[in-house]
Amino acid sequence: MGDDEVRWLQPDELQAWMTLAGLMFKLPAALDVQLQRDSGLSHFEYLVLAGLSESPGRSRPMSDLAGFANGSLSRLSHVVKRLEQRGFVHRCPSAADGRITVATLTDTGYEQLVAAAPGHVATVRQYVIDALTPEQLGQLKTIGDQILQKVDPGRGC
């Protein structure tokens, strides 16, 4: 693509992009700091535990769990291995299809999640929910859904 073909960002577009880019870096870091400090979990680990807790039998195929947590199967495998070593999760082949690995949240993992949830929710509320009006929250959902649909068209919003 030559210089003549580039649709350079206009000043207002650049400002909006820079704000979003800052948010994409700073908010995950703030969530990680709180979770690590208070419960020894990363935000991704928290999402994995939450995804399992919301599933029937606290179990979910690894591929489904990767989608829920917005991570690759490879990244999820490494994280689940660490969570398994800590006694929070266990993996086994699916009874229905042995080619599928299923992750299950243990009672210890559920207790860890329950202990971590209040601090995490307070942090989300502090940095996102309470910073916006109800109308802005609706707009944020709409905007986020539109962007996610472009980035990940197969994802259900």
Please describe what this structure looks like.
- With 157 residues, the protein is mainly α.
- 63% of the residues lie in helices and 8% in strands.
- It contains six helices and three strands; from the N terminus they run ααβααββαα.
- A three-stranded antiparallel sheet has the order 1-3-2.
- A hairpin with a 7-residue loop joins β2 and β3.
- α1 runs antiparallel to α5.
- The mean pLDDT is 94.
Question: Could you list some keywords that capture this structure?
Answer:
single chain; mainly alpha; 3-stranded antiparallel beta sheet; 157 residues; globular
Short description:
With 157 residues, the protein is mainly alpha-helical. 63% of the residues lie in helices and 8% in strands.
Helix and strand topology:
Layout: H1 11-39, H2 43-53, E1 59-61, H3 62-68, H4 73-85, E2 89-93, E3 101-105, H5 107-127, H6 134-151
Antiparallel strand pairs: 1-3, 2-3
